[in-house]
């Protein structure tokens, strides 16, 4: 029994072709939108590539760009097919490739669905990428004189100001690394010597943070040095007072920013996928309704269109059988080639003898 079997007359076939032609142009526009979203996301990720550990995060924007390009190509071609279907002479040239085109459409829609899923599920990978990238970026914050790293201080400072965050997981992360360059340390000072000697790795660690961690909305002047020393500041309690530093870590801020962006894009691509599925089903109905016309010389006659000629179960079985037959044919061909090779070797040995 055919799936989604529909009866058509000439008027219905024309309306279907015209409707699909219009839908394909809407889908082409949607493809341009998806392409633009992928390009925007790629630019946003490149802006902060210094604080990301690897290039895996670009898989989503690259996939969106590819979906946008393929959608434009597929829907532009489908629009031409629908337009030519109104003229039997023009439609005849599309008949040999239409089945192959529909198979490619199925694969394309599966790819779109895969892209939708990764837009929602790539949060864990992005979290790990940001955690390691920010950690390494903070280590290089002080290397303002090192080629290739001299820009890191500006990158981290601008990031903390823009996203109102501090450190990787919080401002205390700055206490665990030396973020002040040796160039600006007085190694003749007793305080500097004592701090370096008190550290196993010989680093100059302070309970302070860069200026970009300061919250300008706080009424109190920023306390960025000796943050945990209550006696160093008047009327100050490190444990209870609300600090005038950003409490949120930059990993959490960036993760929220990119996750919400990718989730929104995932929803849009999901709607595009549903629209593409509708176009593909409509094109299949148009194809089968034109193929099943009993008398091609009489375009006014009725015909039947369907999505699948057999039931889902029968279609699945026949597909498996076809795949098995293809596998057997390949094995036979390989065996025949092997036999020919052995025969040639035997003939060569006989000739030598």
TrEMBL record:
GO cellular component: plasma membrane
Keyword Membrane belongs to the record: yes
One GO term of the biological process aspect: cell adhesion
Chief location category: membrane
Pfam families per UniProt: Tetraspanin (PF00335)
Topology term for the membrane: Multi-pass membrane protein
Keyword terms: Cell adhesion, Disulfide bond, Glycoprotein, Membrane, Transmembrane, Transmembrane helix
Presence of keyword Disulfide bond: yes
Chain residue ranges for the region called Disordered: 334-353
Subcellular compartments: Membrane
The organism's place on the tree of life at top rank: Eukaryota
Membrane-spanning parts: 21-40, 60-79, 100-123, 257-275
Family listed: Belongs to the PRPH2/ROM1 family.
Designated name of the protein: Peripherin-2
Biological source species: Podarcis lilfordi
């Amino acid at each position: 029994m055919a799936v989604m079997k529909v009866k058509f007359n000439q008027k219905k076939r024309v309306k279907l072709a015209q409707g699909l032609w219009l839908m394909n142009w809407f889908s082409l526009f949607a493809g341009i939108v998806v392409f633009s979203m992928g390009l925007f996301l790629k630019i946003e990720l490149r802006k902060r590539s210094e604080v990301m550990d690897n290039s895996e995060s670009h898989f989503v924007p690259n996939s969106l760009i590819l979906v946008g390009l393929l959608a434009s190509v597929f829907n532009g071609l489908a629009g031409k097919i629908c337009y030519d279907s109104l003229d039997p002479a023009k439609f005849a040239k599309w008949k040999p490739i239409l089945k192959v085109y529909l198979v490619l459409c199925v694969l394309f829609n599966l790819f779109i669905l895969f892209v939708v899923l990764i837009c929602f599920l790539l949060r864990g990978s992005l979290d790990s990428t940001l955690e390691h990238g920010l950690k390494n970026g903070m280590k290089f914050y002080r290397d303002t004189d090192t080629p290739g790293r001299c820009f890191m201080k500006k990158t981290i400072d601008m990031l903390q100001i823009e996203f109102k965050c501090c450190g990787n997981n919080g401002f205390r992360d700055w206490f665990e690394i030396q973020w002040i360059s040796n160039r600006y340390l007085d190694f003749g000072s007793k305080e500097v010597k004592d701090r370096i000697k008190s550290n196993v790795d010989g680093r100059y660690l302070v309970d302070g943070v860069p200026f970009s961690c300061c919250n300008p909305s706080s009424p109190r002047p920023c306390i960025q040095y000796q943050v945990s020393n209550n006696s160093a500041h008047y009327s100050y309690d490190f444990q209870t007072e609300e600090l005038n530093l950003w409490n949120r870590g930059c990993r959490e801020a960036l993760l929220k920013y990119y996750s919400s962006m990718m989730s929104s894009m995932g929803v849009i691509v999901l709607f595009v996928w549903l629209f593409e599925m509708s176009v593909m089903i409509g094109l299949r109905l148009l194809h089968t309704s034109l193929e099943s016309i009993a008398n091609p010389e009489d375009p006014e006659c009725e015909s039947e269109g369907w999505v699948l000629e057999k039931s889902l179960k029968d279609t699945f079985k026949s597909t498996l059988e076809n795949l098995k037959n293809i596998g057997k044919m390949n094995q036979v061909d390989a065996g025949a080639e092997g036999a020919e090779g052995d025969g040639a070797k035997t003939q060569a040995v006989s000739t030598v003898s």
